[in-house]
Amino acid sequence: MITIQGKGVSTGIGMGPLYCYRRAKAEIKQYTVDDTQAEWQRFKDAQAVAMAQLGELAEKARAEAGDEAALLFETHQMMAEDLDYEEAIQDLIENEAWNAEAAVSEIAGQFHDMFASMDDEYMRGRAADVKDVSGRILNILCGVVQGGINSDVPVLLASDDLAPSETIQLDKSKILGFITSYGSSSSHTAILARTMGIPAIVGLGDQLDVIYEGRQVVVDGATGAVIIDPTDDVMADFVAKREEQLRQRALLETLKGQENITKDGKKIRVYCNIGSPEDMDAVKMNDGGGIGLFRSEFLYLNSATYPTEDEQFEAYKAVLTGMGDKEVIIRTCDIGADKQIDYFELPKEENPAMGMRALRISLSRPGFFRTQLRALYRASAYGNLGIMFPMVTSVWEVRETKKLIESVKKELHDEGIPYSDHVEIGVMIETPAAAIISDRLAKEVDFFSCGTNDLTQYTLACDRQNNDLGRFYDPHHLSVVRLLKLVVENAHKNGVWVGICGELGADLEMTETFLAIGVDELSVSPRAVLPLRNKIRSLDMTEATARILAEIDGEASPKY
């Protein structure tokens, strides 16, 4: 039995075989083949598998987001069997005796460059298509599994770390838990794990070795322990612990339908953070009061090129109709920093967390931004929509955004396309700059949503993705709490409500503080809703509020 220690970032007990994540990227080497006909058949077989995969993806997209969403994969099917593309590959295999992988890689590069150099914008867009299709065929030829999991049974997935574009493609039905060498509590792997309600452990470093693949493992997401080849006694202890957790979860189930209200009558809204329309089931299952953060960038991460207005509209509409009259707050595209996408062609930056990202990209590319806003307002006719904008630092950014919104609404009106006139507009408070000028920002919007992951990062000058910083990255830091208190005060003076959508919202050690400073809404992963409701209902804020405010203001023995 071997025990290695990491940092638990999503609670729960996971048991099963360890599986090492394979990135969908193959190393291509060219060599001469003896049987060119057999090699050409290898390509044709891989092409057929790719066509079948794309067909399945098209049907899945059509069921979830409509015909427009399916069109991308149908276009890729046509590209995969394009006659010129096929003949060029066949020529290298049959006449030059190239292996299939090298032939596909070579022709893919030639076609990509050809499309990318064209004047027509539509044809330039096909460069990304040929790259994506060829990558799929190469993965099949090289035995690399798209989505990273080639297993008949669910597994504990091990990796160095996972990028957002990788997590979006995972077959989540096969994941019992995450184990990563790097990452942090606010990494995308951790966020996905909490949404799925499965254990996750990060920061194992060199302890996590590929030699453990296939062996039986137990993980404890609360303590960060990873146990390889557990003894029968240890396994029995963890089975009992998991059964107790399930019992506690069953008790929490009795809170469904109950109010989020303290013993002394103080109420707070509890909403959910989601990353795709598929997460709606988890919101409903856990009795979330609405959606406080819908990360729209999943549409961009899951596409080989910019999603169209119709593709976005169908996804937003699906969430709004699925949630009925409950509020759905959609964050506009938050790309940049740790969420990089090739087709955005963002310049390489020394410090991307401080660079071109989120609303800065949207305002710098008004055509791109307008497409998303049109899709959002078209979808607003189907539910209770709020829109919020990430990485705001100045009042002018909000005013410029609002002008673009008015322009989009006028366009839709002139075109006879219905939209709602009751869309709440909000901004994310993620920087000290936004918190400090929140009195000015409050005059421009309907609500604030505090992204405490980034607010902590920028306030403490601590990279939230760097797990080595440990206690230096402290979301409980007095400076962060004081900024949140200032934001709430400035918001309420101007009739604006305040939510928290960062991971701190689910921190039960902070619930009392949030109630004391007057936060109106907490948006958390779906699995955190009932534990948070239980905590809220256990509190009496009659005397606690004065005590906590005195601690924050430095008038009493400090907690922070």
Helices and strands in order:
Elements: E1 2-5, E2 7-10, E3 13-20, H1 36-65, H2 67-80, H3 83-96, H4 100-116, H5 121-142, E4 155-159, H6 164-167, E5 175-180, H7 188-196, E6 200-202, E7 216-220, E8 225-228, H8 232-253, E9 269-274, H9 280-285, E10 291-295, H10 298-301, H11 309-322, E11 327-331, H12 359-364, H13 366-379, E12 384-389, H14 395-414, E13 424-429, H15 432-436, H16 438-441, E14 447-450, H17 452-460, H18 478-493, E15 497-500, H19 511-517, E16 521-524, H20 529-538, H21 541-553
Helix pairs in contact: 1-2, 1-3, 1-5, 2-5, 3-4, 4-5, 11-13, 13-14, 19-21
- Give the CATH H-level superfamily of the largest domain: Phosphoenolpyruvate-binding domains
Shape from CA axes?
A: globular
Separation of termini? 40 Å
Q: How many strand segments?
A: 16
Uncertain residue ranges: none
Percentage beta strand: 5-15%
* Helix content bin: 40-55%
Class computed from helices, strands and strand pairing: alpha/beta
Count of helical segments? 21
Number of domains: 3
Largest beta-sheet characterization: 8 strands, mixed
Q: What is the CATH topology of the largest domain?
A: TIM Barrel
